[in-house]
Structures are given as structure tokens and as C-alpha cells.
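WARN retry 2 of 3 for item q-0093 after timeout on previous attempt; input resubmitted unchanged.
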Amino acid sequence: MAIKHKAQRVAVFIDVQNMYHSARNIYNRRVNFREILKAAVAGRQLIRAFAYVVRTESGEETHFFEALERLGIETREKDLQIYYGGMKKADWDVGMAVDAVRLANSVEVIVIVSGDGDFIPLVEYLKNQGKQTEVIAFGKSTSGKLREIADDFVDLCEKQDLYLFKSTPKTKEKEGE
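OK item q-0093 returned
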């Protein structure tokens, strides 16, 4: 477990797609990003928080992006790519990694909010640079190696009622259930 004290400067990088799909696939619920940000900051000095999001043609996510910004989370937006054959992709891994490396000299702690094993080389690099690295994700869908190498791991599954919104009939209806 990593030592956390109020003088530490923290940067938070949120892989929104990873969080959204994990919460939906495991619990069929939506993520409470306000509580996740609180857990990431843990009473320390937040320098910057980024959410890596995907824009669709319909623009239905606009209110969600605005809600993130009201929480003090900057959004990094990318258009959804639809490939021949219907495959959809909007991969933010490299963008997150570049931003984390770029900001690392301004903070003592980097928090990655994702369970994606693709971030293992990033965490290893940041640790070699003397940065405290923390990962926040749903343990059931997190890379074991990512959990293992991070200085601290917060398993959102352990307090799902705090980190997930209650499922409402309106939400279920909206999601086509």
C-alpha cells in the first residue's frame, strides 16, 4: 500500500471506455466518476484530471462530457472510428500514456483509472522515474500484472455501491432492457 499525504501533487488519467464497459459488463450499472475522482485524489493536491472519451455522430454524450467538466475533469475527445465491416474503435491508450509522461515532472503521483494491461509499460516507466503509481479499476476485469506492479490498487468492486450509480427503471429502459 502506497503512502498518501496531503502535500502530494496528483494527476489522474481516466480511461472512460474501460470504466464504462467494465461497470456495464460486471454490474449493468453506470460509473460514479465523482466518487472515483475523490478516491484518486484521496485528500491530496489535484493538479489535473483527464477523462479520455469518445464522441459519436449523434452527440448524445455531450451532457456526460459537461458533467465531467463540472467535476473538474478535463475531457480529451476523439471521434469514434467505424471500420469497414462495422468494427468500432476509439483507442486512447497512447494518448493517455503520452499525457501521463508529459505531466509526470509536475506531480509526485500518477493515478491510472483503468484495468487495461496495455498500461503496464507506462506504469513501469513512471515507477522508474520515481513516481508513485496508483491504479483504480474493477478488480474482476483488471490485468493481474497491472494490479501487481502498481504502488497501490483500489478495487472498485469492493465498494460498488459507492462507485456505481443505482440502476433505475429509467436507466434500464434507456439501455434497452
